[in-house]
TrEMBL record:
Its EC number is 3.5.1.2. Belongs to the glutaminase family. This is Glutaminase. Pfam families: Glutaminase. Substrate binds at residues 74, 126, 170, 177, 201, 253, 271.
Length: 327
């Protein structure tokens, strides 16, 4: 009897398994709520959960609520950092922002005064990302945002748009982010004006994508900056590896340590409920140990750390069942 059950389990396709994992993880949407401190994000449906996985060898899986567009929010921090390193060089960027995890909330301000001489701890928290936004190439906020949008175009095949509703909503309520930016200006870790840096930072947070595009971006990271389909090296392997290390150590806010311990893959979340992950080559999923995977996920009910409740549960399950851990 046991044998028969085991055999039938093996015949369940990875698509069917994924559908079941999504169905189970959806139960976790009730333990979170949509981000209320950004009024435009509050309107999202907290019951949604959708995921897309794309492999470097062409496997494509989608499950759940897959048709929604959502803003990148903090996921944009990965790409503004990558683009700053790509255009200025890693060494110069690291003079302005460190690579140490804080264990603090993403918008925390208190370490800025504690750390001498005021360099933000890492580019995955708001302070570090505001510094990075000020380092992007271009004379005006518009130039800087356009430059990054063109960089996205190379990865996903279209220039994404900015959700101006979300941007205005944040622009009007960004008192804490402005406080961070003024502090950074005071200590010399912000180039140009505070309002210009805020405009760039908040517009990047408001870039709108869907889960397929998010998975494509995760895949390029997993594939060390080389686009597996166009064969273009979008950014260097060294930058990809630094960005993935930062995702693993700081990508899930003050839950990053636990996420690394129990899920074990580089990932970055945003308060919109999006999560992008980059999975290294893994034999279990398709019996092809050379395939790496990009994951795009959207589940707008978030927990107190700012991570999608159902999204974290789903990635935990996927990592355990398909043995995706790095270590
Ligand atoms: N954690 C996030 O996704 C935060 C991004 C958001 N735009 C903010 O600055 O607060």
């Amino acid at each position: 009897m046991n044998n028969i059950q085991n055999e039938s389990i093996e015949f369940i396709s990875i698509q069917e398994q994924l559908d079941q994992f999504v169905l189970d993880a959806k139960k976790n949407t009730t333990s979170g709520a949509t981000a209320s401190y950004i009024p435009a994000l509050k309107k999202a449906n907290p019951e949604h959960l959708g995921i897309c996985l794309i492999s470097s060898q062409g496997t494509f899986l989608k499950s759940g609520d897959t048709d929604h567009c959502f803003t990148l929010q903090s996921i944009s921090k990965v790409f503004s950092f990558i683009f700053a390193c790509h255009t200025r060089g890693i060494d110069e960027v690291l003079q302005y922002v460190d690579v140490e995890p804080t264990g603090d909330a993403f918008n925390s301000i208190f370490r800025l005064e504690l750390s001498h001489p005021g360099r933000p701890f890492n580019p995955m928290i708001n302070a570090g990302a505001i510094t990075v936004a000020s380092l992007l190439p271009g004379h005006s906020p518009l130039d800087k945002v356009e430059a990054l949008l063109s960089f996205f175009e190379k990865m996903i095949g279209r220039k994404p748009s900015i959700n101006m509703d979300v941007f205005h909503s944040e622009w009007q309520t960004a008192n804490r982010n402005r406080a961070l930016a003024y502090w950074l200006k005071e200590t010399g870790f912000l180039l140009g004006g505070v309002e210009d840096a805020m405009e760039v930072y908040l517009k990047l947070c408001s870039i709108e994508v869907n889960i397929v595009e998010l998975a494509q971006m995760g895949l390029i990271l997993a594939h060390d900056g080389l686009h597996p389909y166009t064969n273009e090296q979008i950014f260097s392997m060294e930058i990809a590896s630094l960005a993935k290390t930062l995702m693993l150590t700081c990508g899930m806010y003050d839950y990053s340590g636990r996420f690394a311990a129990f899920v074990g893959i580089p990932a970055k979340s945003g308060v919109s409920g999006g999560i992008m992950a980059a999975i290294p080559p893994s034999a279990r999923v398709t019996n092809n140990r050379f395939a790496c995977w990009g994951v795009g996920l959207y589940g707008p009910a978030i927990d107190k750390h700012g991570n999608s409740t159902a999204g974290v549960a789903l990635l935990k399950r996927l990592s355990q069942e398909w043995d995706l851990r790095l270590i």
